[in-house]
């Protein structure tokens, strides 16, 4: 029935800041961008491998309920080849990154950080 993950939608509080974070800092290519006047909303499609992130802005979106154990989406995880290089890039840009951990089941290294709206994001060395 399900073939693959197509996209994840994120609503941000400051479109310009979040677009810069995802496209420039994380290096996700912009596929498409449009302002939808009827919704007072920007929409930007960013490539994440074969999948996409849809980045939205809306007037006065409510804050996330709590972090990280609220019901619903817990976090987004991005696969990276070199975790140390990715962490160094984030830290150099002033992004707080948690200490690197090792997944006890796979032996892979991973860490967490937040986007400009405190959405929890993970880097997973694959």
TrEMBL record:
CDD domains noted in UniProt: VOC_Bs_YwkD_like
Pfam families per record: Glyoxalase (PF00903)
UniProt xrefs under PROSITE patterns: VOC
SUPFAM superfamilies reported in the protein's UniProt record: Glyoxalase/Bleomycin resistance protein/Dihydroxybiphenyl dioxygenase
Source species, domain of life: Bacteria
InterPro entries documented for this protein: Glyas_Bleomycin-R_OHBP_Dase, Glyas_Fos-R_dOase_dom, GlyoxalaseI/FosfomycinResist, VOC_core, YwkD-like_dom
Domain VOC: from-to ranges: 4-126
Annotated protein name in UniProt: Glyoxylase I family protein
Organism this protein belongs to: Sphingomonas abaci
